[in-house]
Design goal:
Blueprint: E1 3-5, E2 11-13, H1 21-28, E3 30-38, E4 45-53, H2 54-59, H3 61-74, E5 92-99, E6 104-109, H4 112-115, H5 121-135, E7 143-148, E8 155-156, E9 160-161, E10 166-167, H6 183-198, H7 212-246, H8 259-264
Parallel strand pairs: 6-7
Antiparallel strand pairs: 1-2, 3-4, 5-6, 7-10, 8-9
Length: 277
């Protein structure tokens, strides 16, 4: 199906495939949305693609964002091995709002979003980022803030700060697990630091300073930089001393060492008159 024979008897794809009006309407009347639910052991996020009427998507991006959250509340498709990340009692207390200037969406849940959640660091993280990663699939959204019944809440079940915006964290998505030595690995480390910033205990509420982990890393980098600078300075001094010792000697071209070569290698020779590497 969908193949035809050319002049050379090779099988090649046809340029078009005829489908019925009903099938075509199903394709043109729907838009895909990307939803992230928990995997079997509730440690990673897995993608489920669901289709939504174009009419809903065309209303406004705010409306589409709200529909995405509602689909997440419904949970994974029937028969799926994936797990829900939001309590079934949770509902949107007000429509999702998107600030165009900061590309930040504010999701306002009812109190059951918190009270009916089982808690625990892993479960809290998966719930937060299932919403964040699903909404940031929309190009208009880069970060997500949460409110409960219209009010900011300091913490979410005791393990994560809940009063600042959360950026997308792709390292939690199972199909995008980074491997060491790649750019994705660097992104994963960065994302881990971002998650640490939201964990209770790493930063006080309203504190915009770098977490202690990052401070220590920065101090270690500075110490290492100072040590390298000191070593480079010593090497330069040693090199200058050797050059001073040889400055009064004349090197003949017939010896295989011209002045140009000598200077190119820094003017340093060993005790046998050989160029030092």
């Amino acid at each position: 199906m969908g193949l035809q024979k050319g002049d050379s008897d090779e099988v090649t794809p046809v340029s078009s495939i005829a489908i019925g009006e009903d099938e075509a309407k199903k394709l043109t009347d729907k838009v895909p949305v990307h939803l992230y639910f928990a995997n079997e052991d509730n440690t990673r996020l897995k993608l489920e693609i669901r289709y939504m009427p174009v009419s809903e998507a065309k209303k406004s991006v705010n409306n589409l964002a709200g529909k995405i959250v509602e689909e997440l509340i419904k949970g994974p498709s029937e028969g799926s091995a994936l797990k829900s990340t939001i309590p079934k009692e949770a509902k949107l207390a007000s429509p999702v709002k998107i600030d165009a200037e900061s590309s930040t969406a504010t999701v306002d849940f009812n109190k059951e979003f918190v009270s009916k959640h089982p808690g625990g660091k892993d479960a809290e993280r998966i719930t937060i980022y299932s919403i964040v990663n699903s909404l940031t699939e929309l190009k208009e959204i880069e970060k997500v803030k949460f409110t409960i019944d219209g009010k900011a809440q300091k913490e979410f079940k005791g393990n994560f700060r809940f009063d600042s915006a959360f950026p997308r964290t792709a390292s939690l998505i199972s199909k995008e697990v980074p491997s060491s030595g790649t750019a994705d690995y660097e992104e994963a480390i960065q994302n881990e630091d971002i998650m640490l910033e939201h964990e209770v205990g790493n930063m006080e509420a309203g504190d915009a300073t770098v977490p202690e982990k990052d401070k220590n890393n920065e101090n270690n980098k500075n110490n290492e930089k100072d040590k390298n600078n000191e070593n480079n300075k010593n090497d330069k001094n040693n090199k200058n001393d050797k050059n001073d010792k040889k400055s009064g000697e004349v090197y003949q071209e017939e010896d295989g060492i011209t002045e140009e070569i000598f200077n190119e290698f820094g003017g340093a020779l060993d005790e046998n008159g050989e160029i030092m590497e």
